[in-house]
Amino acid sequence: MARSPGRAYALLLLLICFNVGSGLHLQVLSTRNENKLLPKHPHLVRQKRAWITAPVALREGEDLSKKNPIAKIHSDLAEERGLKITYKYTGKGITEPPFGIFVFNKDTGELNVTSILDREETPFFLLTGYALDARGNNVEKPLELRIKVLDINDNEPVFTQDVFVGSVEELSAAHTLVMKINATDADEPNTLNSKISYRIVSLEPAYPPVFYLNKDTGEIYTTSVTLDREVS
Ligand SMILES: *[C@@H]1O[C@H](CO)[C@@H](O)[C@H](O)[C@H]1NC(C)=O
Ligand SMILES: *[C@@H]1O[C@H](CO)[C@@H](O)[C@H](O)[C@H]1NC(C)=O
């Protein structure tokens, strides 16, 4: 669960609240604010004739209950016309497996998260929010809500094989490729959380070193020290 630096930027996604004129509104209420860069209360951004869906970002591996409700849909039209509206959400985590990740209040449109998330299991949820009248008809165009699960560095790299075997001929030239080792990491690809570097823990005999390792590629080469089977 070690936390690496440089990931605070993702939190900037959190405090966005859009108001899109008359229609179904999405409020993103998840406002944990580690950097204190963001205002305490979501502010509304008005846009004409456009649906805007703001992504919600939730970090894996932590108790999110204090962030509830994480989102809310609201229909202005219903308010204007005095209609009784029922809100509904569908999608992964609610009506598709894994079930029970989210729950909602059909009267207020509030959406809560109920579970600790695992990015390696589900990196992304796409929900659809509905505002329905008494007959179950859409009062508004259904709204797409994207929920991204933020990665933490919760996976150790693992070697792809238990044993890597290399061989090299006696008296090989310096910088001959002997072998390549390989490991994988289940954390989010192309981030520091999944970046792997290799290191030689021990080498026998240690001195003079006859091999060196490229820490980024896992390739092991001979040094300029001459390999002599009768000695090594
Ligand atoms: C969502 O969470 C809020 C805050 O904890 C709570 O007041 C509300 O009752 C919850 N709603 C549902 C549908 O669980
Ligand atoms: C390492 O192993 C993985 C899984 O077997 C494979 O997909 C990947 O291509 C390998 N990488 C290298 C650099 O050999």
From TrEMBL:
Naturally occurring in which organism (per UniProt): Homo sapiens
Name of the protein this chain belongs to: Desmoglein 2
Keywords for the protein's UniProt record, in alphabetical order: Calcium, Cell adhesion, Cell junction, Cell membrane, Glycoprotein, Membrane, Metal-binding, Repeat, Signal, Transmembrane, Transmembrane helix
Signal peptide region: 1-23
Pfam family, any one: Cadherin
GO molecular function, one term: calcium ion binding
Cell compartments where the protein resides: Cell junction, Desmosome; Cell membrane
Record GO biological process: homophilic cell adhesion via plasma membrane adhesion molecules
Keyword Membrane: yes
